[in-house]
Amino acid sequence: MTEPAAPVLPRGVLVLLGFACVVVVVAGLRWVADLVGPVFLGLMLVVTVSPLTAWLRRRRVPVWLAAILTVLVLYLILVALGGALAASVTRLIDLMPAYQEQFAALRDDLADGLRTLGISTGQVHAAVAGVDGESVAHLVTSLFGGLAGLLSNTLFLLAVLLFMALDAVDFPARLRSLAGERPQVAAALQSFAGGTRRYLVVCTAFGLIVAVLDTLLLWALDVPLPVLWGLLSFITNYIPNIGFVIGVIPPALLGLLQGGPDLMLAVIVLYCAINFVIQSVIQPKIVGDAVGLSATVSFLSLIFWAWVLGALGALLAIPLTLLAKGLLVDIDPGTRWLNLLLADTVTTEPAEPEDDAESPAGDEVPAAPAR
Question: Where is this region: Disordered (predicted)?
Answer without folding.
Answer: 348-371
